[in-house]
Amino acid sequence: MADATPGAAPAAKPDAAGDPTQEYRRIITIEGLNKWFGSFHVLRDIDLTVERQEKIVICGPSGSGKSTLIRCINRLEDHQEGRIVIDGTELTHDLKNIDTIRREVGMVFQQFNLFPHLTVLENLCIAPIWVRKTPRDEAEALAHRYLERVKIPEQADKYPGQLSGGQQQRVAIARSLCMQPNIMLFDEPTSALDPEMIKEVLDVMVDLAESGMTMLVVTHEMGFASQVADRVIFMDQGQIVEQNTPSEFFNNPQSDRTRLFLSQILDK
Amino acid sequence: MTAQPFHRSQGDMLTGRAAPVATVGVIGWLRANLFSSWFSTALTLLALYLLSLIVPALIDWAYVDADFAGDNRFACKSSGACWAWVDQRIDQFLYGRYTADQTWRVDLAVVLLIPALAPLLFEGVPFARQLRWFSLAYPAVATLLLVGGIGLESVPTDRFGGFMLNLTVGLAGIVLSLPVGILLALGRRSRLPVIRVLCIVFIEAVRGVPLITLLFVSNIILPTFLPPDVTLDSLIRVIVMVTAFASAYMAEVIRGGLQAIPRGQYEAAQALGLRYWQTMGLIVLPQALKISIPGIVNTFIGLFKDTTLVIIIAMFDILGIGNAMLAHPDWQGLSTEAYVFIALFFFVACFSMSRYSIHLEKRLDTERRD
Lengths: 268, 370
Known about the structure:
The complex is a heterodimer. Chain A is built from 10 helices and 10 strands. Chain A is α/β, with parallel strands linked by helices. Chain A has a 6-stranded mixed sheet, sandwiched between helices. In chain A, strands 2-1-4-5 form a 4-stranded antiparallel sheet. The termini of chain A are far apart. By secondary structure, chain B is mostly helical. Chain B contains 13 helices and no strands. In chain B, α12 (318-326) packs antiparallel against α13 (335-363). At the A-B interface, α3, β6, α4 and α6 of A face α10 and α11 of B.
């Protein structure tokens, strides 16, 4: 499969129906997505398609709905209107579809959310063993491989509480990877970290991006965005305001709101 | 969270030194716990003074000046306690009216309790895996031993009494009320309205009345609703009611633990594809139960002491046997001795549970750092 990285994915792609290659390359299709928390309209008419191996950075002020958007993709939040199709499976109330999608989509949280009563190794093995029914020894071999990959092979038998924040987040990434997902969602993965630990986590994410993983990353790390993103999406008040390649996005923002946001975030 | 930056100083690193003698060992412990301030020192001295008054007097009463033999209370001539009844009545205190030549079966059931509980309670027990199968079979084995069947002479449950009755009702209640309590707690948090409402009604109804009332209901009112040819064994009724009562409390204790688990734990489990029961069984309950240990053991201890209430439906547990003895002309007036003796049984059982819960909390504490 000679699937070249779609270097400059166009911001708004015209309808590609009828072209089987295009159809195959699309891994996430979101159409007319609307969501309310009570009476608060948190996502408004979101349309978004993501191609295989594409890396997307989503940014925007707090409360803009960016976290909610990616949480809809693995059904941590349900939506009231619109369609979400992940690799050919549509997200509905059908629990079977939800299971299928969650097995394919990994997620990394701002607060790590490691299981504190389990060792690092058990954290990594629990889903492969119980969800994928992988035999224990295979699951452990897999876990050791991914711990190697996030550069903490020596911490396997410790408990999460004994690790630094950066190490915990890398374990959380490895835990998701152990399910061998096709898509990885990152919800502000470095926001809860002390400054000196941000780089070790970003390094792992860059490495993962280079391996060809499809990634949706909610972050304010603009350095990361310009280094690995194929596309940067700016959200405000539940809408996608602007999306573009990183260089265009940073150097030539189209809307006033984007310019305001960028000036605030780059000042810091 | 527990994240901690690694501070690295530049230049020479200082190597660690041993802590000062006065902060470790016996002297350190004494200092820290008994003589840390003038107030603490004063309290320590006061406590020592009170102990010096009580302990020698207690030993004199219970042992030095006590009588240990005799056929009735008139045989006790000294100033201390009269323990003459113990030798004559101990079988009643332990077994109630259990068929006299069959009491070895009760003893055996208690002895077998040790290998049944050990692999569940402690780590590093030899043959733990095989023994767990025995733990699983133990309720059936114990029932067979106590009630009879398969060649063992049948002993009707209304002959059960003394401390073995407390143990039977207490242990059955403890073993049953934990899983029932867990299910009720999960049910109360369920998204399905029918299950949630049923659990809330059960918990609030049972918690809202005294255990004595429940026992009366089971003993007097329930049979009037059942067809006359249906009889429920009164021991089973007691166990059901005690279990229902304790599990309602248990459910609320565990619900408190469940509420302490952050949403992120559920979300991480869901995002990994774990189903509801897997999320609960592997991720949420192990953490929630760990937090709830003090409350759970509290409920167990309460349940165990409540087993003395069976006297109101005419079952004679160890307390009932004691009261019966005190009503006998031979032993009238020895209530201090009888109640101290009975209290010891309960204290040993309840204090063991309390110590075990502390041990378990320490063993399960994974938040500790190296």
